[in-house]
Amino acid sequence: MNEPHKHCLTLCLAQNFDFSALCQHLLENKRALLFKDVLLIDHKDALSVVFPYGAVTHWNVSLDMRRKLHSELLEFAVNPLTEFQEDNFSYSLNATQNRIQHDCIYLESDDKKLLLAVSHAMAQSIKLAAFEQQAQQTINTTRHLPNSLASKGEINLSKKSLAKIRGQLFLTKSDINVNYDLLDTPDFFWEHPEYQALYTMAANYLELSQRTEVLTKKLETIHELLEMLADEQKHQHSSTLEWIIIWLIAVEIAITLLEKML
Q1: Strand 47-50 to strand 55-59: parallel, antiparallel, or no bridges (unpaired)?
Q2: Cβ burial 162-194 (10 Å sphere, 16+ → b, else e)
Q3: pTM, whole model, 2 decimals?
């Protein structure tokens, strides 16, 4: 018979953590275990799973304990997010079989490796959500550029402004691409394949594959914007050179005429 539902919360707090320093701190000050590049923090009847890429999953952890842990995690955060991404589920133990239904996770036991298998999918999902938001925000802030080019035939921005926008677009694209392997199947399941079915079920429920495809298309859009801005910068540079040449020729003609008149 299933136990009463408990709370499962996953958050993305930062781009990533200074994980070696964070591990040293938590291993010295908490009931923590480093397991396959993931930190498991035991709160007696609750568990927190901390991932190097700035995500943490809480199983039945009280609000006070979460806040205290988050303040410690943020001390080791690299580029903490201004707005944390979060995802809420409920879960129940002693189920007849492992399954996920209507945002409730039913597990056969509180085996930490079972919780870890689901945590991997949950953490990847929340990291993907942060990537999705980052890509969409960048697209939204540059959406006027194609419209301007289509209506006016040019982008009315200075070379410096264009360079800044290109830099922001590139940072978004490179940040996601560098961390894209986080969305692959974690190494944990190479040594513990018996838990991969549960991870796959959670990944399918969270639609990781479909959302990754959509994110890829957004990155392609960003790449196209980069190419467009690069072409516009080249065009502006060429136009500037053309006017410089025209003015030099005009000056040379004027000097020649003055010499003949004198």
Answers
A1: antiparallel
A2: beebbeebeebbeebeebeebbeebebbeeeee
A3: 0.81
